[in-house]
């Protein structure tokens, strides 16, 4: 195939044997042997945080350092073929312009808006959680319905594109808020044109989120057949983050941290991993729309690891082309960005080139050769 790009847009896509007349000044790039892939969407990311085995500690680093981390992440994302990042939580930091504490990723969004080399991002503001759940003062805490509604409203006032609720409670067998409390937040957000997503590690919280009509569940590590059936009926997205467990398993070899290296720790991780894979498998079979993300920064993955998650989705039962769709098309649908994760004539030249066939082999996504939006926007690729 040949593809003509001009001024950052795809002019046409044609068989190489039937290109027609080419513009006189065209710059031809011989991409022989590679595959054109739509720029991916990391639908669960934390652009201000670095990840790694001490990911939780890094959340307390000074804001100036985290802004530098974001630039490094922006670079890593692009080089890995990720065009869009959906930021689902960043620490609060005083904004030097007015001294108000706001989610740091909002500032990153502003910085990146006019920089074509950086990923396009949508930002959830900061986490909203019940007290006693998220440590390190990262989250805005809300212990009842009115406090929850107020926290949600403040995030939207600050400029968050959507809301992120933390639906794990202080006790794993209890949800932090009632269905009615969460539904009030969903109504508020929808009334203001914003979506609501919810972190869900355990079934009881997942049920509250689904019943309250949140737009998506993050992780969904513990879903059952009733939950996924209702998600499919309502159109609730699942954003998978299974590669976390692959990363933790690797820390059994590369760290000395007890929760990764002891037999007990390894067993606990293996058990949670199995349950999480089962949840995604159930969701897939029920027809739930599955978008996907690395959880880099908020978890231990790094910003250039989305291929790992696509591999994990294949392990959970998706066919490779469906797993790739989760990292492209589905992410675009979740964001409500019709052109994200697609390559169409007239659309943005947001694609990259890999070696191998990612429709059959997710590991091809690790073998990025060129990234159209980083390597200049004019040219023909064959
Ligand atoms: Zn996360």
Give a nutshell description of this structure.
With 382 residues, this protein is α/β, with parallel strands linked by helices. 37% of the residues lie in helices and 20% in strands. The model has no long low-confidence stretch (mean pLDDT 95).
Fold and architecture overview:
- By secondary structure, this protein is an alpha/beta fold.
- The chain is built from 13 helices and 19 strands.
- Strand 14, helix 7 and strand 15 form a beta-alpha-beta unit.
- Helix 5 crosses helix 6, helix 7 packs across helix 10 and helix 8 runs antiparallel to helix 10.
- It is globular, with a radius of gyration of 21 Å.
- The mean pLDDT is 95.
- Zinc ion (ZN) binds next to loops.
The total count of helices amounts to 13
The helix/strand class is: alpha/beta
The unique ligands bound to this protein are: zinc ion
Largest sheet: 5 strands, parallel
- How many beta-strand elements? 19
Q: Which strand order spans the largest sheet, edge to edge or round the barrel?
A: 12-13-14-15-16
Kindly state the percentage of residues in helix.
25-40%
Unreliable stretches covering 5 or more consecutive residues:
none
């Amino acid at each position: 195939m040949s593809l003509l790009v001009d001024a950052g847009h795809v002019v046409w896509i044609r068989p190489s044997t039937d290109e027609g007349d080419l513009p006189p000044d065209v710059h031809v790039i011989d991409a022989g042997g590679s595959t054109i892939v739509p720029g991916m969407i990391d639908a669960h990311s934390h652009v201000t945080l670095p990840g790694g085995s001490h990911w939780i500690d890094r959340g307390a680093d000074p804001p100036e350092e985290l802004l530098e981390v974001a630039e490094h992440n922006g670079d890593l994302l692009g080089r890995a073929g990720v065009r869009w990042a959906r930021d689902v939580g960043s620490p609060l930091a005083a904004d030097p312009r007015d001294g108000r504490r706001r989610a740091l990723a909002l500032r990153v969004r502003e910085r990146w808006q006019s920089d074509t080399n950086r990923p396009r991002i949508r930002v959830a503001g900061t986490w909203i959680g019940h007290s006693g759940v998220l440590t390190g003062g990262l989250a805005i805490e809300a212990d009842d319905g009115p406090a929850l509604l107020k926290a949600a409203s403040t995030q939207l006032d600050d400029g968050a594109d959507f809301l992120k609720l933390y639906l794990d409670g202080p006790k794993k067998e209890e949800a932090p808020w009632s269905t009615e409390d969460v539904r009030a937040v969903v109504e508020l957000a929808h009334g203001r044109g914003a979506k609501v997503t919810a972190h869900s590690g355990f079934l009881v919280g997942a049920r509250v989120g689904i019943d309250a009509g949140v737009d998506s569940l993050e992780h969904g590590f513990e879903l059952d057949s009733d939950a996924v059936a209702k998600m499919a009926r309502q159109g609730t997205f699942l954003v998978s983050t299974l590669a976390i467990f692959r990363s933790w398993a690797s820390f059994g070899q590369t760290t000395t941290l007890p929760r990764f290296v002891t037999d007990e720790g390894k067993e606990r991780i293996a058990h949670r991993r199995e349950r999480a894979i089962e949840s995604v498998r159930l969701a897939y079979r029920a027809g739930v729309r599955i978008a996907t993300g690395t959880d880099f920064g908020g978890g231990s993955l790094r910003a250039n690891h989305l291929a790992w998650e696509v591999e994990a989705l294949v392990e959970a039962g998706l066919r490779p082309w469906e797993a790739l769709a989760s990292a492209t098309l589905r992410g675009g649908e979740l964001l409500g960005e019709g052109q994200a994760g697609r390559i169409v004539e007239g659309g943005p030249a947001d694609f990259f080139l890999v070696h191998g066939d990612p429709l059959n082999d997710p590991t091809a996504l690790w073998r990025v050769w060129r990234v159209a939006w980083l390597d200049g926007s004019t040219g023909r690729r064959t």
